[in-house]
Design a protein that fits this description.
Blueprint lengths: L2 E5 L4 H12 L3 E8 L5 H15 L3 E6 L1 H5 L25 H16 L3 E3 L14 H14 L7 E3 L7 H11 L21 H13 L12
Helix pairs in contact: 1-6, 6-7
This protein binds zinc ion (ZN).
């Protein structure tokens, strides 16, 4: 059976990417990275639920806490509060390439055909999300692998926005109650951070009530 690795954060986009890979008939291998993100407990809880839901053959949780220790991101640094800082702080320096590298290493060992990420369309706030980035990554992968030179890194949502991703997820039956987007809290979503605001707006546009709990919900 053909194998796919999914870089799974437990957010909407990677859950939808997993559903797309599942529909394509791949045997699923999930990889979740602990890079010291503040909402890690929720990401782990959700990614495990998603692994069970999709019947993933294997779910690896990889430790990259050193990435968060380098600082400079509101996603990892407890001293940076989203309520007060620029949205630029959602960038985690060089994170995506580190995560994709871990997926490529695993793909070499597994003989996986493809690596799925949930990167969505622009405006690409982070340079490591863009179509040009994926083209460059695939050039690097074909040059730098030895055991599995044909593995490809794909971002099926790279031309879709959050609303489009939710619509796609509805079509594929993604359990959105097992997804988490808030980067500020892990008990209830804050509703204030940029990812929360984007998520709420996208659910509204897609005509679905967001099933996760929010702080100011009555
Ligand atoms: Zn939030």
């Amino acid at each position: 059976m053909k194998k796919a690795i999914i870089a799974l954060s437990g957010g909407i986009d990677s859950a939808v990417a997993a559903a797309i890979a599942d529909k394509e008939g791949y045997e699923l291998y999930f990889l979740t990275v602990n890079y010291g993100q503040k909402n890690i407990e929720k990401e782990l809880e959700n990614s495990k639920k998603l692994a069970k839901y999709f019947g993933a053959k294997e779910h690896k949780i990889i430790d990259m806490k050193w990435l968060g220790e380098l600082g400079n991101s509101g996603i990892t640094d407890i001293n940076i509060h989203f309520e007060n800082v620029s949205d630029d702080f959602i960038y985690v320096p060089y994170r995506n390439t580190c995560i994709i590298s871990a997926c490529v290493a695993w793909a070499e060992v597994l003989g996986a055909e493809v690596i799925y990420t949930g990167s969505e369309a622009g405006p690409w706030i982070c340079p490591d999300n863009s179509p040009e980035y994926y083209e460059a990554v695939n050039n690097l992968v074909s040059m730098s692998t030895k055991l599995n030179k044909n593995v490809k890194v794909v971002a099926p949502l790279n031309y879709s926005d959050k609303e489009g991703n939710i619509r796609k997820g509805i079509e594929l039956g993604v359990p959105f109650e097992f997804t988490w987007t808030c980067v500020a809290r892990a008990d209830k979503a804050c509703g204030i951070c940029q990812p929360c605001r984007d998520r709420l707006q996208a659910f509204e546009k897609a005509g679905m009530k967001d099933p996760v709990p929010y702080v100011d919900e009555k």
